[in-house]
Amino acid sequence: MGVDTVKVFVLNSGSSSVKYKLYDMPAETVLASGQVERIGMEDALVTHRVPGREPYQLQQEILDHTTAIQQVLRLLTDQERGTAVLERIDEIGAVGHRVVHGGEAFQESVLVTPEVKATIRELTELAPLHNPHNLSGIEAAEGLLPGVPQVAVFDTAFHARMPQHAYLYALPRLLYERYAVRRYGFHGSSHRYVAERVRTLLGGEGTPKIITCHLGNGASIAAVLGDHSIDTSMGFTPLEGLMMGTRSGDVDAGALLYIMAREELSLAEADAMLNKHSGLLGISGTASDMREIEAGAEQGDEGAALALEMFTYRIRKYIGAYAAALNGVDAIAFTAGIGEHSPRVREMVCAGLTYLGVELDPEANRQAKGEALISTPASRVPVYVIPTDEEVVIARDTVAVVARERAPVAGQG
Ligand code: ADP
């Protein structure tokens, strides 16, 4: 009806996996989704989902991202296997890629060009575990879908407008100038999606102050002013801030130096300690998964109970800090695996926020499914559960960037 529709293929390429979603835009209808796991192995597994049909699985040797994406593209058009949602692969009008690190170079989503790829490659320095694989996904898609515009959407971009006083560490400034060591923040597409939903739920007017809590295996929290983040708990790496499944979150750098000296740890060992053996796992000694932590705490396990207490205490502390950073708060939102599914965590966090005028509705909190208001009408600050959707943010940005690039430049058109 006058609106151009376009099919957008969203890709999230990791070291050994590719997750995908095919959207019909602008309706945002998901035509298909799925993932390829164990790339690089003989028994890689493709799981392909089409709404209303049984999931389709395929196990075979897949050694690289190109083969993985090629396999997915085949499934999207394979009538015989019943996995098809497209007649022809050239119906895909654009590809949107999740790229973890945009550094200071990318403050918003961009069309992929040779220069953009070169910069993403340079940023590997800052995100060695992610950017190279994101780039492999981009190059694979370029090869398989020649001429189709590719758009990069960065996890850091939503935080790119943080003021300097929030993003600098109080280290010698030379280190920032020399190595770009500063706070970048991550989970940007998630914080952005959630904040946009909350802004709409609040009436869509003005510049609300929103605190978004993304609590998954990785966890971060953001202070959002209207349409951008002004501070966030993850920093130069995703290690800083909240306690996570296996990551420590905030820790005194001096304690780290001391431990490294006493235990004679190498850099790799210290890295593993902080990223893989800390957090909920490090404190409970048994589990990194919140479901297991909650079950353990329920059964009287001291370590699990302590892990839960520490996890929620940290979140509460950050909410207080961000209420101060924003000079007030108009709404608080919970998202991601724990934020969306754990009434217990939400209750424990909010129990200490009465000074902000937060009043949780226990029944609404327990019953919450999907998007929900979980505070009472009297609560001065509304509290929401918002299921996150990073892929739709990527799909929307992909459409917007392609439209912008195609639009005639003002004055020349
Ligand atoms: P990732 O960061 O890997 O994307 P998710 O956002 O999927 O992670 O979140 C995973 C976390 O969510 C795990 O700690 C898991 O235990 C927790 N989680 C999922 N469902 C529930 C639930 N019903 N109750 C408590 N925690 C849950």
From the structure above, extract its key features.
413 residues, alpha/beta, Nucleotidyltransferase, domain 5, 8-stranded mixed beta sheet, 6-stranded mixed beta sheet, 15 helices, 14 strands, 21% strand, globular
Characterise the protein shown here.
The protein has two domains: 6-154, Nucleotidyltransferase, domain 5 (2-Layer Sandwich); 188-381, ATPase, nucleotide binding domain (Nucleotidyltransferase, domain 5). Helix content is 39%, strand content 21%. It contains 15 helices and 14 strands. The chain has helices spanning 65-77, 114-122, 131-144, 164-167, 173-179, 188-201, 253-263, 267-276, 279-284, 290-298, 302-326, 336-341, 343-351, 362-367, 390-406; strands spanning 6-13, 18-25, 29-37, 41-49, 56-62, 92-99, 110-111, 150-154, 209-215, 219-225, 228-232, 331-335, 372-373, 383-385. Helix 1 packs across helix 3, helix 10 (290-298) packs across helix 11 (302-326) and helix 11 packs across helix 13 (343-351). The two termini are 24 Å apart. The chain binds adenosine-5'-diphosphate. The site of adenosine-5'-diphosphate has 13 residues, from helix 10 and helix 12.
Write a short abstract of this structure.
The protein is α/β, with parallel strands linked by helices and 413 residues long. Helix content is 39%, strand content 21%. The protein has two domains: 6-154, ATPase, nucleotide binding domain (Nucleotidyltransferase, domain 5), CATH 3.30.420; 188-381, Nucleotidyltransferase, domain 5 (2-Layer Sandwich), CATH 3.30.420.40.
CATH architecture of the largest domain: 2-Layer Sandwich
Q: According to CATH, what is the topology of the largest domain? A: Nucleotidyltransferase, domain 5
Summarize the main sheet: 8 strands, mixed
What is the count of DSSP helices, taking H or I runs of 4+ residues? 15
How many separate domains? 2
Give the end-to-end Cα distance, rounded to a whole number of Å: 24 Å
**Average pLDDT, to the nearest integer?**
96
pLDDT < 50 runs, ≥5 residues: none
User: What is the CATH superfamily label of the largest domain?
Assistant: ATPase, nucleotide binding domain
CATH class of the largest domain: Alpha Beta
- Over the alpha carbons, how many angstroms does the gyration radius reach? 22 Å
